[in-house]
TrEMBL record:
<protein>
    <recommendedName>
        <fullName>KIB1-4 beta-propeller domain-containing protein</fullName>
    </recommendedName>
</protein>
<dbReference type="InterPro" id="IPR036047">
    <property type="entry name" value="F-box-like_dom_sf"/>
</dbReference>
<feature type="domain" description="KIB1-4 beta-propeller">
    <location>
        <begin position="85"/>
        <end position="318"/>
    </location>
</feature>
<dbReference type="InterPro" id="IPR005174">
    <property type="entry name" value="KIB1-4_b-propeller"/>
</dbReference>
<dbReference type="Pfam" id="PF03478">
    <property type="entry name" value="Beta-prop_KIB1-4"/>
</dbReference>
Amino acid sequence: MLVPQGWADLPDDLLQSIIFLLGTPHETLAFAATCHHWYAAFLSCLSAIDLFALFPPLLLRPKLPDSNLYSEHFVDPTNTVASVRCRVPWRTVNKMDYIGYSYGNIIYCYKKKCHLFDVFTGAMTKSPRLIIGKRDYPTFGALTAPPASADSSVLVQVGCSLFRWKVGSTSWLKLCQIDVPFNHLIVSRSQLHTPIFQVMSFKGEIFAIDSSSNLFKVFLEPRFRLQKLSVGWAAVKFDGYMWFVVCDDMLLLIGPANNRYQAVHLDLSSRRKRMVKVERLENWAVFVGSGTKSQAFACKNPERWGGRSNCIYLCGVDGEQPWCTVQLGEEVKEPDYWERQYRWRHLRHVEDGVTDLLSTIWVFPGVFSRI
């Protein structure tokens, strides 16, 4: 009988049981970084459990230029006094234009190049230069998968065009028109007239939504293209912005509507996609940022770390508290809440125009994504 000689020799079933007992994302990252064997056990867990649903995300409050308002640490909902350092080089990124966040990476643009910064490791990935006009600039950016994945791409919108860079390649692909099917035989062409602000990968497919509530399906192969989907929006009329979030096998859209946070389930089973109103989140809690270019997360059974089910955790917008919670469908009674939501969309004027600074967002390690 073989007896383990050290920590690196512990059996896989024991290591995987330890992962289930870990309480926070950074504890899990520390586990995976222990040795090659433990990292392999961590990777094998990704196909069996959804780590996004197991833990709450961490709160990232950016260090703004000429401000000491926030420290360079995350805020952990499970332990607000824990000190988890953020690895973003703030002095560098505050000279750049923030265009999005996804899979643990903040995406900035500087001199027509995209710079991806992993907020947990500090690793930086840089794209080739975008071939765009002198006065053109990106307004949105998102990853389709973690940068380490073989099929990872960055999507960037510039004006009416969508660009794709496959991570590691030497050039961008440009998409100028979208497919608008009238039926299964006829397809017309149209331009992308409004800004995209959310991209989500779900069950092997990529979806996007713009500020006019148009829903798209993104195809990367064999040809880079965007297809507009026919959707019935009768269930809920959102107040202009919303977030994709995955709960188990459901793709939800969640956002403010009539001074309440409401949610709809995107039913993809029919040719004409339907939005079905969700009355309760049941045993889920959803975390949304203070800007539409951020990524939303869902955590299952939040009571196990002191959280609340059927609630939305909203990033703090005034610096007084890290976050606040509202129940799904509950009226937000604070009279100036919505005004402060908009006020915390920090803007700055740059040479090419006006772009967003990064505001308070929820973050999760990209390596936790199932591969």
